[in-house]
Amino acid sequence: MLRLGLRTGVLEWLLERVPTPRRTPFTLGYLAVVGATTTFARLADPELVQRLQEASSSDGHNLLQHPLRALVLSGFWVAGEVWMPYLWGFALTLAPLERRVGPARAAAVFAAGHVAATLLSQGVVITAVETGRMAPEAMDYLDIGVSYGVLACLGAVAGLLSWRGRLLALGGAGLMIAEQIATDKDVITGVGHPAAVLTGVALWRWLRRAERRPPRPRPAAATAAGGAPARVRAAR
């Protein structure tokens, strides 16, 4: 019986965290969009895909000429043709955040991380090009993907965990970013990924105030004289 109870408890714990349209509509909706663009990128004409991604890129030139389009559309693609890793990324960061604070605030965190990290990283590139420290071609490097939003949600949800969970989440993010910086040596990633995590961390206080609370229990029924139940008014 104990083993059966443990299995049932683990299954219930897992099912409670599966994204559903009712509990995590933003997560599932965004995954559907990213899944659609990823499928399109794999099946469509490569030249057409390249043109669309270049038009959506948040590189320096696009940001200076079409900032709104670049900031919005760059987040609708993934870097590469594999979608599954982003499913796990959303399930472990955006989905739990949405369950805790609701879809509107989760979307705000995702967007804030994407925008802030993009502007900061590309600002570094633009400044480096203007000062001659980077070649002008750096202004046209393709910059698309959802990693900034995902990392911002990771940094944000860490603030809603226990101190052990927070340490694990931020420590894992730090190790991953350190490994990327050491191996890729890419300025955009090296600046953007830490900035995205810190954007989520900066929103802790706002999210803690807005965190969803469990519904308050209804006042218990008290038994009146003669055995008839009487409602008890909740104390203020």
The tally of strands reads 2
Distance between the termini: 43 Å
Neighbour order of strands in the largest sheet? 1-2
Mean pLDDT: 85
Shape: globular
* Secondary-structure arrangement, i.e. CATH architecture: Up-down Bundle
Q: Give the uncertain stretches in residue-range form.
A: 221-236
CATH class: Mainly Alpha
Beta percentage is under 5%
The major sheet is characterized as: 2 strands, antiparallel
Number of domains: 1
What's the tally of helices? 11
CATH topology: Rhomboid-like fold
Secondary-structure element order, N to C: HHHHHHHHHHHEE
Cα Rg? 23 Å
Superfamily at the CATH H level? Answer: Rhomboid-like
- Indicate the structural class: mainly alpha
Helix percentage = 55-70%
Region (Disordered): 214-236
InterPro entries: Rhomboid_2 (IPR046862)
Transmembrane segments: 70-88, 108-129, 141-163
Keywords: Membrane, Transmembrane, Transmembrane helix
Structural features, described:
It is a single chain. The chain has helices spanning 2-16, 25-43, 46-56, 60-65, 67-73, 84-101, 103-130, 147-158, 163-184, 187-202, 204-210, and strands at residues 221-223, 229-231. It has 236 residues and is an all-alpha fold. It has a single domain (21-210), classed as Rhomboid-like fold (Up-down Bundle). The protein is globular, with a radius of gyration of 23 Å. Mean pLDDT is 85; it is low at 221-236.
Outline the secondary-structure elements.
Elements: H1 2-16, H2 25-43, H3 46-56, H4 60-65, H5 67-73, H6 84-101, H7 103-130, H8 147-158, H9 163-184, H10 187-202, H11 204-210, E1 221-223, E2 229-231
Antiparallel strand pairs: 1-2
Helix pairs in contact: 2-6, 6-7, 6-8, 7-8, 7-10, 8-9, 8-10, 9-10
Region (Disordered): 214-236
Biased composition (Low complexity): 219-236
Pfam families: Rhomboid_2
